[in-house]
Automatic annotation (TrEMBL):
InterPro entries: Gp18_domIII_N (IPR054564), Phage_sheath_subtilisin (IPR035089), Tail_sheath_C (IPR020287), Tail_sheath_structural (IPR052042). Residues 26-84 form the Tail sheath protein Gp18-like domain. Residues 181-345 form the Tail sheath protein subtilisin-like domain. It comes from Sinobacterium caligoides. This is Tail sheath protein subtilisin-like domain-containing protein.
Length: 459
């Protein structure tokens, strides 16, 4: 020890550490968009404007713009988007067609066109973008520049290329890890945290999860991310939805059927859309307002005009279609004071994990403990070390109890597991348990008709 004539301060780095729960409701969305990065995790942080700028607006058959709009109808949300549509592979060349300028403008038949070529019989060369005309890809609007010869001819010949989401294959949605170690499709969700520094928890691929292998791929990724999959059923009949559910056994799958209908005030028509983005938005809103430990069932769904087939429901009616679907672990949508998500069950055969909220609660506790104990790796194992770790976990469990996220829980180091041989090998074991809250799915009022209160008439 070196000599010191004075006062010395030594910082001790022991004691329990605070533990924080990771974000529970980051959405992982896989699909197609007319513009935007391809197979690169991209964050949209609750802004419709940002969503349109990065992945395009509504219109056409691409799934991502519609899904983001559906999510944001419910709440602001953080969405990690994986767009698999590559214009160099998934596009269609539109044959040359006749167009006419009206007050110096015309609109192409497709949004998000590119490689536009405009010619005319009385003009010797192709008109030049920026010199003869302006072009807005999102709307397909061509605007003639004043003084350009493009204003002269009555008829213009225009050819262009447009993205075609129907050319995206099932394999491209499911994704893979290529020889360069790059992730694509659904598999790209696994590497999302290393790119955007947040882990998606609510995984969906609207318009594709009625395909079993797509849903299986999402479940495999959800297992690794400690997330859940929100999948759409076939959207046909009740029996088709129930048969589809029987093809899975996973506590991480929340299956919703039927699809929804949405009214377009501009076209005055209803269109059919997958329900999963709306459900993801509902769960996110519930997490923000109440907490991840609450069931998403019996929460309002905004922005829809109905369901793709009628779902009858009455409180207490065991034969109602909604009840029959829920009994078979299929969540659905009912109309009761507006449209509501209805169903608590995962697609697990294990009663321990029948409630999707229980699976999510366990996931987020396990994830929080694992992430919070990086500091504990490679430290010397002694009594202070054991006390510090158990103290950290018990403090965290008490904070969850105070919030109502668990009924109670406890952490301890079992001497029978932590033998001298195990400790000498660098292995230390901590046990913890907890009891989550369970949703009140079935409420019974026991009614009795009695004469006991007649005496009060003359009291």
């Amino acid at each position: 020890m070196s000599f010191l004539h004075g006062v010395e301060i030594v910082e001790l780095n022991g004691g329990a550490r605070p533990i924080e729960t990771s974000s529970s409701s980051v959405i992982g969305l896989v699909g197609t968009a007319p513009i935007g990065p391809v197979n690169i995790p991209t964050v949209i942080a609750g802004s419709r404007k940002e969503a349109i700028e990065k992945f395009g607006g509504l219109g056409g058959d691409c799934s991502i713009p519609s899904a983001l709009d559906s999510i944001f109808d419910q709440t602001g949300a953080v969405v990690v988007v994986i767009n698999v549509l590559d214009p160099s592979m998934h596009s269609e060349e539109k044959p040359e067609a006749d167009y006419k300028l009206v007050k110096g403008e015309l609109i192409l038949n497709d949004n998000y066109a590119y490689d536009v070529k405009i010619t005319a019989a009385d003009h010797p060369a192709e008109y030049v973008l920026g010199e003869d005309y302006h072009f807005d890809s999102a709307s397909g609007l061509v605007t003639a520049i004043e003084g350009s010869p493009i204003n002269t001819p009555e008829t213009l010949k225009i050819a262009y290329t447009v993205v075609d989401p129907t050319k995206v294959s099932q394999d491209e949605i499911e994704g893979a890890v290529n020889q360069e170690g790059e992730y694509t499709g659904i598999q790209a969700l696994m590497g999302a945290e290393s790119v955007v520094h947040i882990a998606p928890r609510l995984l969906l691929a609207p318009g594709y999860t009625q395909i079993k292998s797509v849903t299986d791929s999402l479940i495999q990724v959800a297992d690794k991310l400690r997330g859940i999959v929100i999948a759409d059923g076939p959207g046909g009949t009740d029996s088709e939805a129930i048969d589809y559910r029987k093809s899975f056994d996973s506590a991480r799958l929340y299956l919703v059927d039927p699809w929804v209908t949405v009214y377009d005030s501009k076209t005055k028509k209803e269109s059919k859309k997958p329900a999963s983005p709306y459900v993801a938005g509902v769960i996110t809103k519930s997490d923000h307002e109440r907490g991840f430990w609450w069931s998403p069932s019996n929460r309002p769904i905004r922005g829809i005009s109905g369901t793709s087939r009628p779902i009858d429901f009455a409180l207490g009616d065991k034969t109602a279609r909604a009840n029959l679907l829920n009994e078979q672990d299929v969540a659905t949508i009912i109309r009761q004071d507006g449209y509501r998500l209805w169903g608590n069950h995962s697609c697990s055969s294990d009663p321990k994990w029948q409630f999707i909220s229980v699976r999510r609660t366990a996931d987020l506790i396990n994830d929080a403990l694992q992430r919070a104990h990086l500091w504990a790796i490679d430290r010397n194992i002694n009594k202070t070390y054991i006390d510090d770790v158990t103290g950290s976990v018990n403090n965290y469990l008490r904070s969850l109890k105070a919030k109502g996220a668990i009924i109670d829980g406890n952490c301890w180091a079992d001497p029978e597991m932590n033998t001298p041989a195990e400790i000498a090998a660098g292995r230390v074991y901590f046990d913890f348990d907890f009891t989550p809250p369970f949703p009140a799915e079935h409420i019974t009022f026991r009614s009795s008709l009695v004469n006991d209160y007649l005496e009060e008439i003359f009291a």
